[in-house]
Specification:
single chain; alpha+beta; Arc Repressor Mutant, subunit A; Beta-Lactamase
Length: 295
């Protein structure tokens, strides 16, 4: 089957755009400085997105990004003026601003995984009764985009919707890494290596886990996010066989005897295929509508 990308076809590029780029003046030092400011601002946004509602102090942000305090303050001030960063509860701590929600509305229609998976997650939660997480890959991180949890299920605070963690330290992130092309997964692990120690992981341990996951077709982690818990995870593939998300069930270890483990894996795998098919249908339908609009 040929791959149908989960991105909608754009209009043809303006023929004059290439000419404009070819005739553009060489990049100046000012251009480089501007690009660096954008990169730093995005780094600030990413670490704030990874935090909870309490946010981070200026000093914490500066130390994590190895910025001087004045530089970090200038970036935060500019982002705060634009509404994409706010003070948490009127304090001196910074958090993601509500303006970011409006930016995401348009982009969410291009990769509608949350809408495409909603019914499957509801049914899966009822059937298994444990905490269910749906995570996607964002660069070198994994992001929790949706979850379901019964009142009796394990409470996983580290996996709140919107939480962002390095790929390789969460069950969902590891499941996606395991099925990415090896060169890509190794590159991501190497880039995240400085962060792994904080999560009691290493390049070696993550690499061994990925091999085992790929061999079995699913991942199994004990106590990775919460002590005395067990997480079972399967990848969600796109039409080209590339993992675009991961589906996890997290439960108390005592609730997962060996005879139940196999059944939960089968249910997760079936649900992952449902989400893959729903994404494909959504993408095909959007492509048809785009074709009608162009015609």
């Amino acid at each position: 089957m040929s791959r149908v990308p989960f991105d909608y076809p754009s209009h043809a590029d303006d023929p004059g755009e290439e000419a404009l780029l070819e005739n553009a003046e060489p990049a100046t030092r000012e251009d480089a400085s501007g690009a660096q400011s954008i990169h730093r601002a995005m780094q600030v946004m990413r670490i704030l997105a990874a935090e909870g509602e309490d946010g981070l102090r200026l000093t914490e942000i500066a130390l994590r990004l190895q910025l001087s305090y004045p530089t970090a303050h200038r970036i935060l001030k500019a982002l705060e003026l634009e509404g994409v960063v706010e003070r948490a509860h009127g304090s001196r701590r910074y958090t993601i601003g509500t303006e970011m929600m409006w930016f995401g509305l348009r982009a969410s229609t291009r990769f509608p995984i949350k809408a495409a998976s909603a019914q499957t997650l509801d049914r899966l939660s009822d059937e298994i009764g444990d905490t269910i997480l749906l995570t996607v890959r964002s660069g070198h991180d994994s992001v929790c985009v949706d979850r379901r949890a019964k009142s009796s299920a394990v409470h996983v605070t580290a996996a709140a919707i919107g939480s962002r963690l390095p790929l390789g330290v969460t069950p969902g992130g590891r499941a996606m890494l395991a099925f990415l092309p090896e060169r890509m997964s190794q590159s991501i692990i190497a880039a995240n290596a400085p962060h792994l120690d904080a999560y009691n992981s290493s390049e070696i341990s993550v690499g061994e886990y990925l091999k085992a996951t790929k061999a079995k077709g699913y991942g199994i982690c004990e106590g990775l996010t919460v002590r005395e818990t067990l997480a079972l995870t399967v990848p969600v593939f796109d039409a080209g066989g590339v993992p675009v998300a991961a589906l996890s069930a997290i439960t108390a270890r005592r609730r997962m005897p060996d005879h139940r483990l196999g059944e939960v894996v089968r249910v997760l795998s079936r649900s992952a295929k449902e989400i893959s098919n729903a994404l494909l249908r959504s993408n095909i339908e959007k492509s048809k509508l785009a074709g009608l609009a162009v015609g």
